[in-house]
TrEMBL record:
Record SMART domains: Elp3 (SM00729)
Organism, as annotated: Neomoorella thermoacetica
GO biological process: tRNA methylthiolation
Matches recorded under PANTHER family: RIBOSOMAL PROTEIN S12 METHYLTHIOTRANSFERASE RIMO, RIBOSOMAL PROTEIN US12 METHYLTHIOTRANSFERASE RIMO
Protein name: Ribosomal protein uS12 methylthiotransferase RimO
Cell compartments where the protein resides: Cytoplasm
Residue ranges of every copy of the Radical SAM core domain listed in the record: 137-367
Subcellular location, principal: cytoplasm
Enzyme class: transferase
Keyword Iron attributed: yes
Length: 432
């Protein structure tokens, strides 16, 4: 039997695509192996969001090409979607380039590659994947649920709209059906992802349907938590807040990428609002949901960012007291408006500001976490002695270590948070 491995690079949305690939391959009776060195065919599901991601993808492909097992290499994902025609010439090591829209044709593509054919199958970004068989890791208590593809926002630094096309919501019934499928496989937590989850429905239903979708997902048997990532700051509607306050299972957690707080920088980013508007949005959320956990992400070193702009950002973080923060150094991407803007910031200044921001936020995150010590919280176990509370999204926020608790992944236990293990992680004791 032909052995196939899938290497997933990039964001949670790419992870969902890789799980669709695994689902299609599993159904077509190809043997799935987790170690690429054991495989005759390796699919690299690439990210192309920023230069560093593309370099990681090319390094992975070239390393595979040098492997003693000489696997046939299929390049999938955003790098193929964006650069297949150029790479067709420049990367002869790859036997095929496929876009997300070709996932359903993978078995046939693998057959053609094994016969020595080179394959280029990159349908336009108009394709909405989903509705495909999906294979998730056994026993994993959470799963990302992609509710839409593409983006209609026009942030000046971002390549996503060019790679993924306009915003396309997945039909509500298809999203719910996939969630039921995941619940039947033991998933307890659904983590909603898209480029902009809050725009869900406007494109195909003419209205925002995220509140309704959250209600439907939270009512599925077996689903304990529904978590929302990638919310857009100007689309936190009263209906969304109402659902987050009244529907059991919709966790009081919001990932709200703000990117900056200086009005001038936000304007050049093509992003809405100001730092003051961002603070008001956060205050409104906290007034409605006092115990909400808020995560955000910021870009430092954007063209034209002066020291006083950066100081505005630090002051914003002090005032906002966000629970979790991620930060990126600006990366000038080919074809974006921001790459051509004057006032490009030197790399060493970006690095210095990145370090200062993370250090500044660490004391805030520590103080937010210390505020929860002594509290009893629900913890979704990810394995013996470790899990996450509602305040912790998978793979980006901290965890809770529960010494001596053997309950398996997927168990929901009550834990008293006793100590901080470090800035991000907790120690706790099981409560009977
Ligand atoms: S919201 Fe902005 S940063 Fe996010 S995917 Fe859309 S264009 Fe890119």
């Amino acid at each position: 039997m032909i052995r196939v491995a899938v290497i997933n690079l990039g964001c949670p949305k790419n992870q969902v695509e890789s799980e669709y690939m695994l689902g299609v391959l599993e159904e077509s009776r190809l043997e799935l192996v987790s170690d690429p060195r054991q495989a005759e065919v390796v699919i690299v599901n690439t990210c192309s969001f920023i230069t560093a991601a593309r370099e990681e993808a090319l390094d992975t492909i070239l390393e595979l090409a040098r492997a003693a097992s000489h696997p046939r290499i299929i390049v999938a994902g955003c790098l193929a979607q964006q650069y297949a025609s150029e790479l067709w010439q420049e990367l002869p090591e790859a036997a095929a380039f496929i876009g997300p829209g070709a996932t359903g044709r993978l078995p046939e593509i693998i057959n053609r590659v094994l016969k020595g054919e080179r394959v280029l199958d990159v349908p336009g970004p108009e394709m909405v994947t989903g509705g495909l068989p999906r294979r998730i890791e056994d026993g994993k208590p959470f799963a990302y649920l992609k509710i839409a593809e593409g983006c209609n926002n026009r942030c000046t630094y971002c390549t996503i709209p060019a790679i993924k096309g306009p915003y396309r919501s997945r039909p509500l019934e298809k999203v719910v059906a996939e969630a039921v499928f995941l619940a039947a496989r033991g998933v307890k937590e659904l983590v909603l992802v898209a480029q902009d989850t809050t725009a869900y429905g406007l494109d195909c239903y003419g209205e925002y349907r995220l509140p309704e979708l959250l209600r439907r997902l939270a009512s599925i048997d077996g689903i304990e938590w529904v978590r929302l990532l990638y919310a857009y700051p100007t689309r936190i509607t009263p209906e969304l807040i109402e659902v987050m306050t009244t529907v059991p299972g919709v966790v009081p957690y919001l990932d709200l990428p703000l990117q900056h707080a200086s009005e001038g920088v936000l304007k050049r980013m093509g992003r809405p609002g100001t730092g003051a508007a961002g603070l008001r949005a956060i205050e409104n959320l906290r007034r409605a949901i006092p115990e909400i956990t808020i995560r955000s992400t910021f870009i430092v070193g954007f063209p034209g960012e002066e020291e006083q702009d950066f100081q505005i950002l630090l002051d914003f973080l002090t005032a906002a007291r966000l629970d979790w923060v991620g930060a990126f150094k600006f990366s000038p991407e080919e074809g974006t408006v921001a790459a051509g803007l004057p006032g490009q910031v030197p790399e060493e200044v970006k690095e210095e500001r990145y370090q200062r921001l993370m250090l500044h936020q660490q004391s805030i995150t520590r103080a937010c976490n210390e505020g929860w010590l002594g509290r009893e919280v629900q913890v979704l176990k990810e394995g013996p002695e470790v899990g996450r509370s509602m305040r912790q999204a998978p793979e980006v926020d901290g965890v809770v270590y529960v010494k001596g608790d053997p309950s398996p992944a997927g168990s929901m236990v009550t834990v008293k948070l006793t100590h901080l293990y470090n800035i991000y992680d907790f120690l706790g004791e099981i409560k009977a």
